[in-house]
Amino acid sequence: MNYDSKRIAGLLGFVAVVQIILAIVICEAVYSGYSVGQQYISDLGNWSLAGNYAAIFNVSIIFAGTLGIASAYFIQQAFKNRLFTFLLMINAFCSILIGVFAEDISMPAHGISSLISLICGLGAAFMSSKFIKSPLSYAPIILGGVIIVAVVLQASGNYLGLGLGGIERLEIYPSLLGALVFDAYIIGESSNTALTSKT
Description:
globular
């Protein structure tokens, strides 16, 4: 049933996002000399820079991408929106490629995958607002706007004193937060629907 697909999709997506956030925090802590303000997040998965600790980041983002693909399958079952599912699938698949092709393994593949993931993630964030009731539906739109502003600022070389790593995080974290909002919402909605259907 629809509410079962929503619940499974939400749980898979929620786990994917939470574990990658925790992996980033752990990697930043164990990577000696790492600068949040001056280094890319992807440096955490750079084997030549992070050493064996890069495995934490790379395995985590590959796992997140795998869960994301599974979540997208159930999203399609629940919402029947091919464009939304396509954006989620490509975003998740590119996450896997980001982990497989770390910066020092293949920078072109890593960079292209990151760009496509960002674009598809942004598109999915805006589309997700269609499936969320107001006023929470504005959250993905606002977070998507933050991403666009951050991208423009980075492209113009204006980092607002946050450094390269800081401005990049304004592109990545809003996307993760938007995913959490959507996943938590459809989990809650599916639970309410299930309870209503039993009464």
